[in-house]
Amino acid sequence: xxxxxxxxxxxxxxxxxxxxxxxxxxxxxxxxxxxxxxxxxxxxxxxxxxxxxxxxxxxxxxxxxxxxxxxxxxxxxxxxxxxxxxxxxxxxxxxxxxxxxxxxxxxxxxxxxxxxxxxxxxxxxxxxxxxxxxxxxxxxxxxxxxxxxxxxxxxxxxxxxxxxxxxxxxxxxxxxxxxxxxxxxxxxxxxxxxxxxxxxxxxxxxxxxxxxxxxxxxxxxxxxxxxxxxxxxxxxxxxxxxxxxxxxxxxxxxxxxxxxxxxx
Length: 264
Ligand SMILES: [Zn+2]
Prior knowledge:
Layout: E1 2-3, E2 18-19, H1 21-28, E3 59-63, E4 70-73, E5 76-78, E6 81-83, H2 97-107, E7 112-116, E8 119-122, E9 133-135, E10 142-146, E11 148-151, E12 156-160, H3 165-181, H4 186-193, H5 204-207, H6 209-225, H7 236-245, H8 248-263
Parallel strand pairs: 7-12
Antiparallel strand pairs: 1-2, 3-4, 3-7, 5-6, 8-10, 9-10, 11-12
Helix pairs in contact: 2-3, 3-6
């Protein structure tokens, strides 16, 4: 690497013509000792992880609340869309699937979770300008790979296992929020919206308040998944997200439903 020109600083490498002496010195001195700090031991969240090579790439698992897991073969249809198309063998996401489902069943205990090797949904470029589009041989329609999807009317959340494990958990929070929003008062949504700064990701889909709120919630929740310390309830939005993530909102909602049923 030859650097030319000057920065005006007497100590800067950029003044030197030819190989930067600092750079060369750094390269010439190999590390002979470990860095002067030790990694602290980490508590394994999933100590019993055993990769399961026998899981087939076209296996779709259905988790209905309070019922045994059902396994079906892909593809399966939800409404007009096809999910769980056979795809590449899933990655490490399998081993956190139970945790992802428990996240969804905590935030939205009524939701049925469908976990498929890949999620492919009919979509247009306008919906997802940043995604890779697929064309199925049997169709003229365009499809896009998704990490997850929430079907509000059906009370369904679909998760794609074709992602890394952390993303699966993050997606679980994201899609659960989409479900939860259906029972939230508009005042609560307005409160969250009021804290969001104006910005554009260059896509009407990404910029929609529905998507922004879901991304805010998943980001918020992932902090605690990683064990980051911090104030949980420093703002009204924190309080809302906390009540959502811990399942308090869902519990309140069930209580209200029961009360309404008794009053009938
Ligand atoms: Zn979303």
